[in-house]
Amino acid sequence: MNILSIFTNPYLWASTIAMAVPLALPAIGGTFSERAGVVNISMEGIMLISAFVSVAFSAYFHNAWLGLLAGVISGILVAYVFAWAAAKMYANQIVLGMAFNIFASGITAYLFNAIYGPEGTPFDTPKLPDVKIPVIDKIPIIGQILSGQNVMVYIMFVLIILSQWFLFKTTVGLRLRAVGENPEAAETAGIDVVKMKYLGVILGGAFSALGGAYLSIGVLNSFSPEMSSGRGYIALAAMIFGKWTPVGSFLASLLFGFATALSYTLQESSISKNIIMMLPYVVTILALIGIGGKSVAPAADGIPYRPKK
Amino acid sequence: MVKKALQSILMPLIAIFISMIVGGIVILITAKQNPIYAYIALFSGAYGNLMNFATTLTNAIPLIITGLGVAIAFSSGLFNIGAEGQFWIGAIVATYLGYQIKGLPWYLHIPFIIVCAMIAGALWGGLVPGLAKVYTGAHEVITTMMMSYIAIYFSHYLLEGGPMMDKGTIPQSPLIQDSAKLSILVPNTQLSSGLFIAILAVVVVYILMYKTTIGYELRAVGFNMKAARYAGINVARKLVLAMGLSGAFAGLAGAVQIMGVQHRLYDSFTSGYGYTAIVVALLANNNPIGVVIAALFLAGLSTGAQEMQMQTNISGQLADVVVGLIIFFIAIEELYRVIMEKIKTRKSKLEPVGGQE
């Protein structure tokens, strides 16, 4: 296969964007959470739970939108428990995240077997629609890349802009960031630290859940155990690489999305697919060790805070 | 002192108890079966007779060794959650040396494999995540996790038509030489003399962590990094060392699993031992003796879960659910403190100063 023809193929770029969605959404979610000072590595587990709940509801009600809604609600509920344990019980957030991830992988596999058995999710489970964008669709190459994507791709674009605006232009966004930087000062200024942590973690859960739903009823219309395959962790790396901003997280996710898309495209070539499948993980490590500049975490990130009152 | 020891045992016990109840509720709702029968099936499947117990012990061996490694990292304040990948690297090295090297007597072949697998695990777990942590601040949670996925895909690469694939169509490696196999302790089971390696590892880690300067310094770094630095400990070097040691034990576990149980590398996606080992270390509160107890419990849970699946048709994945819950209920230890305090204040309200009479 001609190497150049791989990169001029619009399909590669279209799938780069598609592959970035389940990374960018949890990465932005993680941004909210860590800006409020809570490290949530359970985004992996939340994605998995939402992916399962979305499929189950989508199959049962035969409506993918209901599936998406149920998935997001499940993500919010799980995140609520996480927020309670992190903000009210001052639990070690990494240990907590591990607990949630193991629980999520167990409960989804268990329920998957209990409900669907070896046949798996029903073949006629509806998936979220692909959308053709009227004018852009007609433009050559650009149309192939930007139009006809799954509806979640466009929802993601809207959410990126909204998130950036919310975090940096609104009072609540400012308060959220203040809590992650200096909770004591924030509390002195009259900000309810615990409430802000809840908000950050729950937003994180909702965004991760969107990413999880996209995996099961966006890209596909089925679920398989462990289908999140580490994306929650890669999303954390994207968030760091994106310097804890929504737009940055998205751009970093594009890079990882590209690595994933490339690994799929190159599967037809003579290089072993397993070697190429390592690419996104290698890129993540390279990104983390600072290729692309150093990024500094919110000062109080990951440290449990006990309110003075 | 006794009170503290009691508390450190009580906490995991409470967490286990609550988690079993929640797991029971899940059984009740989803499978509509009596959870008590399910748990009886689970425990007799784990410890009920010699064969079952031997299987539990067999599963406990990799958990003990990997758990020790994770505990070393935890004690030093590091979250090595990539033990799974280090385990695989150890297994890959052990398999390769196990079938490639021919004609060595077992007493040379086995130690050689052990040393190489430990070095490989140490490099995988220590070098990249440890150095990245020290020099760039990259969080070890993500780097070790990424290294895990890379290790797993690497093993797929080696086996699926790669350099380690055996003749035929099944993605598996050739069998290791007899000289690389650990002897079986209980006939008709898979319990091997790897058990002695696990016991030896416990003793070594206990002495290392509690009786040597290095161990003291590692724990000092974990206890308070700034104070350790102030006390003149080279923190950066200790962090890399802790990650390396942690990886070395995970690598050893992978090698013991190949030499004692599997005898070849399969293309199964994940062993899961590396993840469960994290729970082992948490339950054990990083204490080497505690690691043995926790490993026996968790190995029993997974062995018994299979038995439960056969007897009651309840999927064995329920074990993971319970494990996740256990960690959760350990993590929120604050809750017990809050509850205890509430009980105390209520008591003092009920008994006014001076008493009733």
Describe this structure in words.
The complex is a heterodimer of chains A (309) and B (357). Chain A is mostly helical. Chain A has a domain at 21-230. Chain A has helices at residues 3-8, 10-35, 43-61, 64-88, 93-116, 142-146, 151-169, 171-181, 183-188, 193-219, 231-241, 246-265, 273-277, 279-288; strands at residues 130-131, 149-150. Chain A has a two-stranded antiparallel sheet with strand order 1-2. The longest helix of chain A is centred in the middle third of the chain and has 27 residues, at 193-219. The model of chain A has no long low-confidence stretch (mean pLDDT 90). Chain B is mostly helical. Chain B has a domain at 63-298. Chain B has helices spanning 2-31, 35-47, 50-75, 83-100, 106-136, 140-159, 194-211, 213-223, 225-230, 235-262, 273-283, 288-312, 318-331, 333-350. In chain B, helix 4 packs across helix 11 (273-283). The longest helix of chain B is centred in the middle third of the chain and has 31 residues, at 106-136. In chain B, 54% of the residues are buried. Chains A and B meet through helix 5, helix 11, helix 13 and helix 14 of A and helix 1, helix 5, helix 6, helix 11 and helix 13 of B. Chain B: Keywords: Cell membrane, Membrane, Transmembrane, Transmembrane helix. Chain B: It is found in: Cell membrane. Chain B: InterPro entries: ABC_transp_permease (IPR001851).
- H/E topology pattern of chain A: HHHHHEHEHHHHHHHH
Determine Rg of chain A (CA atoms, Å).
19 Å
Biggest sheet statistics of chain B: none
User: What's the rounded overall pLDDT mean of chain A?
Assistant: 90
Distance between the termini of chain B: 36 Å
- The residue ranges of chain A in which pLDDT falls below 50 over 5 or more consecutive positions are none
